Input
Amino acid sequence: MRLQSHTLKSLGVDGVNGGMKMKGIVVYDTSYGNTKKIAETIAETLKESGIEVDLFDVKDVKKLSAKDCNFLVLGSPTRFGTLSLQSEVF
Ligand SMILES: Cc1cc2nc3c(=O)[nH]c(=O)nc-3n(C[C@H](O)[C@H](O)[C@H](O)COP(=O)(O)O)c2cc1C
Output
């Protein structure tokens, strides 16, 4: 799966915010690997746009602070019409 990183660029995303390199965190939950694949693609595409990205399985996240990043992406599988329990708790 590929996302178009030039689409991010056309939206003005260049990985720089006020002279500082932007940092994003992508957190995903997955049971069967689908959400992981999507999260990996999002992380890779953001990196191609010059953004520093850390990718975590939600089960491995102990503590995060808003100071750790400029933005956070959370990917959850749908479970009975809502977020997975792990994503909900996160
Ligand atoms: C117990 C259970 C409940 C689910 N409930 C929904 C649902 O309400 N709506 C939906 O569109 N998909 C539902 N799904 C499908 C999953 O969201 C879908 O297969 C998803 O891609 C799984 O992600 P994963 O591979 O990252 O675990 C459900 C799957 C399971 C196992």
